[in-house]
Specification:
3 helices; two-stranded parallel ribbon; alpha+beta; single chain
Length: 206
């Protein structure tokens, strides 16, 4: 991970670690976000835990209330993930998190007024409309900006100088994208480059 990406990951972690948010992914929950971490390649992860909130648990998160404990999920995002001062998006049609205290309070107050027999799918649609009205969808920037081609949004193949890597039993981990692959797999290794990301490698045998 280059210094720019590492700085973005650290900024994201420092902004959002331990904070409450509205979690949207074909449904809506109020959650707390913890254990934000990044490692090799273009992946950043976190854990989210539901905060019981009257009226929420709409959409795909609807479930019978009796005996149902808080939902806990581990989430991850790849090279298209984006963030802003008060939001974090998976980046390609997956989950979104909205951290603004005003938005969290507004959504919780709005959901508390849902009738007990409300349709959970309609509740999800209503919360999404509310988020639009609250201007929750503020401009974002890429966490892994150098990995995305401007305009197309496609993964940018590496043009970096060759990097030495250690092989173990015919397998290596690419230091550019973090993917593990077998040297005998011609779909992933052409003798010079990791074809998934284009990074040139110098293989050092174990």
């Amino acid at each position: 991970m280059n210094p720019k990406h590492a700085n973005n990951c650290e900024e994201l972690r420092s902004r959002f670690e331990g904070r409450e948010a509205i979690y949207v992914e074909k449904g809506v929950l109020q959650v707390r976000v913890n254990n934000i971490s990044s490692g090799r390649g273009f992946v950043i992860r976190a854990d989210v835990e539901e905060i019981a909130t009257a009226g929420l648990g709409v959409g795909m998160f609807h479930r019978p209330p009796l005996g149902a404990g808080p939902l806990r999920r581990s989430i991850a995002a790849g090279y298209l993930t984006t963030f802003s001062a008060q939001s974090w998006q998976m980046g390609y049609g997956g989950w979104s998190l909205y951290f603004s205290p005003e938005i969290v309070q507004a959504v919780a107050g709005f959901a508390a007024r849902f009738p007990e027999n409300a349709d959970p799918n309609e509740g999800y649609k209503e919360v999404c409309r509310l988020l639009m009205e609250l201007n929750a969808y503020e401009p974002t920037r890429l966490v892994f900006s150098d990995a995305v081609c401007p305009g197309s949004g496609k993964f940018r193949m590496s043009d970096s100088p060759a990097i030495g890597v250690q092989a173990s039993s015919g397998w290596v981990v690419c230091p550019y994208c973090g993917k593990r692959f077998a040297l005998f797999d011609s779909r992933r290794w052409d003798g010079e480059r990791h074809t998934t990301c284009g990074q040139r490698l110098i293989i050092n045998a174990a």
